[in-house]
Amino acid sequence: MSQVMEAEEKNESIGMKERYKSLDIYRGLLMVIMALDHTVYYIIGSHPMEYFGDGAPGFVFPKYDQIYIFVNRILSHIVAPGFFFLLGLSVILYKERHHKNEGTSNLKPSHLKHFLLRGLVMIIAQLTLINFAWMLGTLNSNIIASSIPSGGGGDVLVSMDVIATLAVCMILGYILSGLSDRWILGLTLGLMVFNTLIFPKGTMLEGSYNPLLRWLFIPGQTGIFLSHYPILHWFPLTGIGLVFGRLFVKSKDKAMGLSAYLGLGLLLVFVITRLLNLLDQHPQNSGIRGFLSLTKYPPSVSFVLFTMGISFILLYMIDRFTKRFRGFDFLLVFGQNSMLFYIVHLYVYGILGLIISKGQGVIHFYALWLLGLGISFFMCKLYSIRRCKKRSTSL
To answer: What pairing do the DSSP bridges indicate for beta strands 220-222 and 158-159?
Structure first.
C-alpha cells in the first residue's frame, strides 16, 4: 500500500534481489493482516476506532467482546506503522539505486519531481477510488457507528486518510533524506516529544478545527472533511525508516541483526511504561485486553513502542526464514503490487459485504477473509504477469 515505489528487481543484481525479497515479503504480510481488519469493517459491519479523548463526555474507548475480533485488531495495529516505516526505508533504497556513487545524502530536482508526481497520484487515488471504496462499507445496514470526533458532523465527502498522508510523508522523507543521520534522528525524536507533550486532550474531542489542522495534528472530522492520520504524528515513523534505511544500505546483515535487538528493547520499554500507566492517554484497564488497548488516533508513544517492537522482530524473522525456504514467496505478489492490492482488496471485500449474508461466526469470518485474499491475489498475479510480459517485449 504505502510502497508505490516498488522494487524494480528485473534490472538489479542477484544480491540486490535478495536484499529486497525480505522487505517485499514483509510488506506482503502487512497486506494480509490489513485485510483481516478490513474484513471486520466490510463483512461484520463494525470497526474499532481507538481515538484520543479518554474521559471526555460521551466517548467510549473500544472494548472487545469477541476474542477473535480483539486478536485481529491487535495484529492489525502493526500495519500502519509498518507502512510508514517501510516508506522511509524505500526512499533510501530508491536513492541508492538511482544515485549510484553520488551518495544517499544528495538530492536531485528530477528525483524530487518523481516523488511529487507519485505523491499527487496517491492523493488523487485517495480522493477518488479509495474514498469511494470505503463508502461501500456505509451501505452495510449493520454498520456500527465509530467514536470519531465529529466537529459538527455531516456526511464525509473529503477524506485525507492513510494513503494521502503517506504521500506527504514520502515527499518530506525524500527532502529530509539529504540531512545526516544525526539530524534525521534528532528531528524524528524531537517531533515525537512535541507530539507527546502537546497530545490532543479529551476536551478537544468534539471541537471544530480547520481541515488543515485535522490533517496535520488533530485527527477527526470537521464538516465534510475527515482525517484519521495526521501528518505530524505519523511522519516520525517514516523518519525511523530513513535512519534504518541508511544502515540497511551499508550492511543488510547488520541492520537485520540489529532489528531483533531493537524489537526486544522496544517491547521491554513498552511493558514497563504500560505497567506504570505512562506514555498512553488511555489508562490501562484490567486484563490483557486492557493492557493492549492503546491509543492509535493519533498514535501514542506506547502504540509506537508496541507496534514497532513487533515489526522489527518480524522483519528479522522473515529475513532469516526466507533464506532457508520459499514458503513465504506467495506474499511477494502482495508486497510487490502493494498499491494495486490496497485498492483492489477494498472493492473485493466491499462487494462481498454487500452480496453475502452477514454472519459473525469465526468460520464464516475467516472463510470470507481467505476468499477475498484469493480473489485479490489472482488479480494482482495477472497484473504481475502482464507487467513482466510488457518488460520482456520492450528489451
So the answer is: unpaired
Is 303 buried (19+), middle (13-18) or exposed (0-12) by CB count in 10 A? buried
Helix 181-197, helix 231-250: angle, nearest 10? 150
Which amino acid would we find at residue 213?
L
Spatial separation of the C-alpha atoms in residues 44 and 38, rounded to whole Å: 10
* Residue type (1 letter), 366: Y
Entry pTM: 0.91
What string of pLDDT tens digits covers the 395 residues of the chain? 444 434 333 333 334 444 478 999 999 999 999 999 999 899 888 788 898 887 676 677 888 888 888 999 999 999 999 999 999 999 999 988 876 655 556 788 888 999 999 999 999 999 999 999 998 887 765 554 455 666 656 677 789 999 999 999 999 999 999 899 999 999 999 999 999 999 888 778 777 889 999 999 999 888 889 999 999 999 999 999 999 999 999 999 999 999 999 999 999 999 999 999 899 988 777 788 889 999 999 999 999 999 999 999 999 999 988 877 777 889 999 999 999 999 999 999 999 998 886 666 889 999 999 999 999 999 999 988 887 766 656 55
189-200 burial: b if 16+ Cβ within 10 Å, else e = eeebeebeeebb
Distance CA 137, CA 184 (A): 39
Cell matching residue 298: 493519533
Q: How many CB atoms lie within 10 A of CB 42?
A: 29
237 close to 81: Cβ distance less than 8 angstroms: yes
Residue with cell 511522519: 235
User: Which letter does DSSP use for residue 286 in this model?
Assistant: S
At residue 9, the 3 state secondary structure works out as helix
Phi, psi angle pair for 244, to nearest 5° = -65, -35
